[in-house]
Specification:
Pantoate--beta-alanine Ligase, Chain: A,domain 2, binds pantoate, single chain, alpha/beta, 11 helices, Rossmann fold, 2 domains
């Protein structure tokens, strides 16, 4: 496995792979890797000749400077985990390698066709512009045949599919199921910031989501939304930012059960913001 920090070195590696007609699998990450990321890497290793993983805490997708500062970072541990998982190239650039100062002031705008108006987009203004800005740059550099994303970030995944369509990237996006801890808690780098007590409370998020499935179709989506909000908010230290039941492709809220329907939630557990989702139909 090699670790590359500069774009010129990465370009040289990619050029060599392309001339040798090797297929490239790509897993973009912000580091602080957990089992969920490693599943993505393992799948890439199985399905491609070469696997590239980027580790870059992308400043332009954080709308809260405290969240950016507190985002967990542990490059040495990430390197060890990726080596074991069979990764071939780690791309871990500094911010100045990826952005000039004008770009850092974030004037980048993408037409999301409405996918950004709801949920994460509503509560994290500019977040998805930052995600598309970095992922499109990374796709241009890595030129992957396949790129792997986790379904935990359900809205991000929809937006990546749209970005690939609109910008005509020749990459296959592979949607990978949420990886959960034994307790049910969706794996996230942010879980590291939870205290032991908070971690137990955070488990209630997935428990409530799983239980909510039993009420479909007895309760309408609106009634089920209220039930979930009440149940999660009743847990000490948990505060729901949003819970929406949406049509999976348009991300628009539904008022009658249709397929495919997904419930997406963002919850503060103390200061830590967690997201999760569940398929209903
Ligand atoms: O999901 C993430 O970790 C990030 O949003 C991504 C896709 C690596 C872009 O910075």
């Amino acid at each position: 496995m090699i670790i590359v920090q500069s774009i010129s070195k990465l370009n040289a590696e990619i050029e060599a792979l392309k001339s040798a007609r090797k297929t490239i699998g790509f897993v973009p990450t912000m580091g602080a890797l957990h089992k969920g990321h490693i599943e993505l890497v393992s799948r890439s290793v199985k399905e491609n000749n070469c696997s590239v993983v980027s580790i870059f805490v992308n400043p332009t997708q954080f709308n809260n400077p405290v969240d950016l500062e507190k985002y967990p970072r542990d490059l040495n541990r990430d390197i060890e985990l990726l080596d074991k998982a069979g990764c071939d190239i780690i791309f871990a650039p500094e911010a100045k390698e990826m952005y000039n100062s004008e770009e850092l002031n974030n004037n980048f705008e993408f037409d999301f066709g409405g996918l950004d108006k709801v949920m994460e987009g509503q509560f994290r203004p500019g977040h998805f512009n930052g995600v598309v800005q970095i992922v499109s740059k990374l796709f241009k550099l890595v030129q992957p045949d396949k790129a792997y994303f986790g379904e935990k970030d359900f809205q991000q995944l929809s937006i990546i599919h749209r970005m690939v369509d609109v910008l005509n990237f020749r990459v296959e996006i592979i949607d990978c199921p949420i990886v959960r801890e034994e307790s049910g808690l969706a794996m996230s780098s942010r879980n590291e910031r939870l205290t032991a007590t908070q971690r137990k409370k955070a488990v209630e998020i997935s428990k409530v989501l799983f239980e909510s499935r039993n009420f479909v179709p007895k309760l309408s989506p609106g009634e089920l939304k209220n039930w979930v909000l009440e149940k999660i908010n009743a847990v000490d230290e948990l505060e729901v930012e949003y819970f929406e039941i949406v049509y999976a492709t348009t991300l628009q809220t539904i008022d009658k059960w249709t397929t495919p329907a997904v419930g997406c939630v963002a919850v503060f557990c103390g200061e830590v913001r967690l997201i999760d989702n569940i398929r209903y139909k």
